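Late entry, written up from scratch paper. The run itself happened at the end of the previous shift, but nothing got recorded in the book at the time, so transcribing now.
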Amino acid sequence: MLDFVGFPFFDVSPVFPLGAILFNFLFFTLAIPIEAYILTNRLKFDKRTSIFYSIAINLFSGAIGWFVFFLIEPILPPEIRSEIVSYFFFNRPGGNTSLLILMMTAFIIFFSTFLVKFFLLKMALMSLREPGQVKQEAQIIGRKTSRRLGRMKLQNTSILTTVLIGNSLSYTAITIIILVITTLQK
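Output as recorded:
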């Protein structure tokens, strides 16, 4: 056993999810710059703001995803539970239904991550708005209000499509890298 300073006889458990941790590191390393680039180009943020929003939405969505996983995992049927746990934590695919479960899980994760990132970005944009902007928007009446609402709907659509494009590109990049690594290992 190894002896680290302050942790005598520290032993890494065989259940330690090193693969999941490395995958999250790979995911964040790829997703943050890709999504920051998309935010910079589509929403016209400066680079620092884009990187800040990208880091925030990716780390919070990752934490929320793991929290939801650990909430849902105990209530799954034992077969599905053991296949998911053995695949994610031990990198061992399960039985015959593992490919179907993996595809359904990936589909659910993609769209739930997209929705979480969209709502996180909207909340971040609203919370970081200056107080004077809210008062000015409340005072606008008449035709200006209808034009403003039309512009805000367009902006919501722009944020929605921007997050969808960024999420799609980051997931595509990670999928390509995983496929390349998997084919090189065989």
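The first strand starts at residue 2 and ends at 4.
(Scratch paper discarded after transcription.)
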